[in-house]
Amino acid sequence: MSGLVRRTFDSPEETRPFEQGKGRLDLVNLDGGPVGRAVFEPGWRWSEHVKPIAQTDSCQAAHAGYCLAGRMVVAMDDGEQQEFGPGDFMVAPPGHDAWVVGDEACVMLDWQGFADYAKP
Question: Which residues of the chain form beta strands (DSSP E)?
Answer without folding.
Answer: 14-17, 23-30, 33-40, 63-69, 71-76, 81-84, 89-92, 96-101, 106-110
